[in-house]
Write a structure and sequence with these properties.
This protein is α/β, with parallel strands linked by helices. The chain contains 8 helices and 9 strands. The protein is globular and about 45 Å long.
Length: 242
């Protein structure tokens, strides 16, 4: 499960002096680092890490070429992103994850595989999209198994909301695709409702609902476990058409 959600984690003062929570798209979660993960951070970050403070990216300069670009929000331990990057060396990948061991694990994998087509942020995904990713620059944006916030009173913290759909639409090129997957049926239905109402998109599902799991999305250990337990998984693909 990825650590992506819209939970408030930062407080500011509002006009009457009372604390006001700012909405962020993640919960920062610490964790012990393995030797490999530590190596990934120490040796991989200087090579492949991106910093929000550097502002808007020139992606051709970042990767040293022109190529199709995919951004994944909340890559967890990085297994899927690493597998996709290895399978498509002609494409470029940007991952965003706030879980430090996950960042280290991905970077260690990138180093071990000798990849050059992966870059990483370790901060809030919404801030990255707003401040660093140029409009119309992405071919795909991936959101796999975000935090479902399954309690009804917490549903508003889910990242997939109308404002998120519009932000992503701006970052995708015309013809670019937002691909989401979840194992929570209620969240899948909310994703579908939000995206069907979002202007400028076309649902790629033939029946206007969900698509079969596409071959390019790796099956994670988490998903395999869910299948054994009888859990469903719902994939959605929405193409930017305007």
């Amino acid at each position: 499960m990825n650590d992506v959600n819209d939970t408030p984690v930062e407080q500011n003062q509002d006009g009457d002096g009372q604390p006001r929570r700012a909405i962020r798209s993640f919960v920062m979660r610490a964790g012990r680092m393995t030797e490999g993960q530590q190596r990934g951070v120490e040796k991989g970050w200087p090579l492949f890490g991106l910093n929000l403070a550097d502002g808007a990216l020139n992606l051709d300069q970042v990767f040293g070429r022109q190529a199709p670009r995919t951004l994944e929000i909340g890559f967890g331990m990085g297994h899927s992103l690493l597998e996709m990057a290895q399978a498509a060396p002609e494409q470029d990948f940007i991952g965003i994850e706030v879980h430090r061991p996950g960042v280290g694990a991905l970077l260690n994998g990138v180093l071990n595989a000798g990849l050059q087509n992966v870059r990483v942020y370790d901060c809030d995904a919404i801030e990255v999209l707003n401040q660093a990713i140029p409009d119309g620059s992405l071919d795909r944006l991936l959101l796999f198994f975000p935090d479902p916030w399954h309690k009804k009173k917490h549903n508003k913290r889910r990242i997939v909301q109308p404002a998120f759909a519009e932000l992503v639409r701006r970052k995708l090129r015309i013809g670019g695709v937002l691909h989401m997957a979840t194992d929570w049926e209620h969240y899948a239905e909310q994703m579908l409702e939000v995206m069907n109402a979002a202007p400028g998109y076309r649902n790629q599902a033939a029946d206007g609902t969900f698509i079969p799991r596409p071959d390019e999305r790796p099956i994670t250990k988490f998903e395999k476990r869910g299948e054994r337990l009888g859990h469903g998984v719902w994939d959605l693909k929405f193409e930017r058409v305007d």
